[in-house]
Design goal:
8 helices, 12% strand, globular
């Protein structure tokens, strides 16, 4: 039985699609000391049957209320899995897009902070300006602006909701730094004397 000091570290990268989370996670896996397991939205979506897609990757907007109970369950299962890996002494990096832009409030982030209470978890905000996100969406997915040159509603909603309440242990901006540079900024945050408190603050704030 491990004591708390022997738990694996947990890094949660939170941001919009195409903000650069996956690249940072890969850099962490390739450069950080020890074994870092990658558990995140992409992995859970790959496990999800087609008829329940996008599953845990459901975007803001409340357009699929039929999937929301499943999304709630999947998030809790994902965090329980992270806790199990950490208890086994394995480090975990995960990329997510937490939001509360559902048809009804689900309180998912609050529930997840409770699951990881007492664990060594760093909550990282992965920022990226919306014009850079659009450039990447166009390049990767052949997406585009609306005919009137405005940002598509789903992209705008991601940008609006994903960083609420905006409490992090560290924030990085992938328009200013490469994935490797962001990973090194996160590494320095893990190594400094200030303990990770974001999840504790969010848990207490949302419990009031």
């Amino acid at each position: 039985m491990l004591n708390e000091n022997e738990y694996g570290k947990i890094i949660i990268l939170n941001g919009t699609p195409r903000s650069g989370k996956s690249s940072i996670a890969l850099s962490i896996q390739n450069t950080f000391e020890g074994v870092w397991m990658n558990l995140g939205v992409d992995q859970f979506m790959q496990m999800t049957p087609d008829r329940f897609q996008p599953g845990i990757g459901l975007r803001p907007g409340g357009e699929r209320p039929d999937l929301e109970p499943l999304v709630n369950t999947m998030y809790q299962a994902m965090y329980e899995a992270i806790a199990a890996f950490s208890r086994s002494g394995l480090n975990v990096v995960m990329d997510v897009g937490h939001h509360e832009g559902y048809s009804v409030p689900l309180g998912i982030l609050h529930k997840c902070t409770k699951i990881l209470e007492g664990f060594p978890v760093w909550f990282v905000g992965v920022r990226c300006p919306i014009d850079v996100v659009m450039e990447r969406r166009i390049k990767t997915w052949n997406g585009d602006y609306n005919n009137d040159s405005t940002v598509p509603k789903p992209v705008a909603l991601w940008q609006k909701f994903v960083h609420v309440p905006g409490i992090y242990d560290i924030e990085v901006d992938t328009s200013l730094h490469s994935s490797k540079e962001c990973a090194q900024l996160i590494r320095r945050r893990l190594e400094d004397a200030q303990s990770a408190k974001a999840f504790e603050y969010i848990r207490k704030m949302m419990s009031q």
